[in-house]
Amino acid sequence: MTYEFYYWPGIQGRGEYVRLALEEAGVDYTDVARTDRGMSAMTRMMDVESGAPPFAPPFLKAGKRVIGQTANILLYLGSRHGLAPKADAGRLWTHQLQLTIMDLVVEIHDTHHPLGPTLYYEHQRAPAKRRTDEFWKERVPKYLGYFERLLADRGGSFVVGRRLTYVDLSLFQIVAGLRHAFPKRMNHFERDIPKLVDLHDRVSRRPHIKAYLASDRRIAFNEDGIFRRYKALDL
User: Fold this and answer.
1) Model confidence over 33-73: pLDDT tens digits?
2) Taking the complete model, does pTM exceed 0.85, yes or no?
3) Does domain 88-206 have CATH number 3.40.50.720?
């Protein structure tokens, strides 16, 4: 089966966590919105008259099934492609960790848009600076420290156990994104999370991920996505 994946064509965003899982699994998929007339197809999928429409991208079409929300999609893919434990307890634990990561993603986005996405960054510079300072003082140590401790408790290989899961792929993306958006702050902070940095590096060398990162399927970080580089916020 070839999956149909739907997400905005010009950004990594929340869809990138799904792309990484699809790439690591080595399964066939079409990034629909990046094809001819793909945006129209994605819009039609969200038509409220279509039955059980997804609220917004990302969503995945697997046969006749349409699955929305990043963590929900990964829950589905993980159990089918060896990216999550088979037992219910392990699958739910992995899902719980992914939900925590998605909470962090919201906070990362809010560093540059603390007053909401309808205003341009230029209209909320001062609140963004205050939010970013608090984010790096309080929130980054809380979130990344948590995952660093999980890695330490499990011997430093992978977060959930001895095998890679989609949580490890998502943490790779978090480290890569923070390095792009906040290179100065991240360079200073990485000394506190050596195991997460090592996890990032090991994931980047996995054959399928390495090939993906070198391909045109990997959209570059840009100032329309979640991880945005603003010099005024990286002091």
Assistant:
1) 999 999 999 999 888 766 788 999 999 999 999 999 999 99
2) yes
3) no
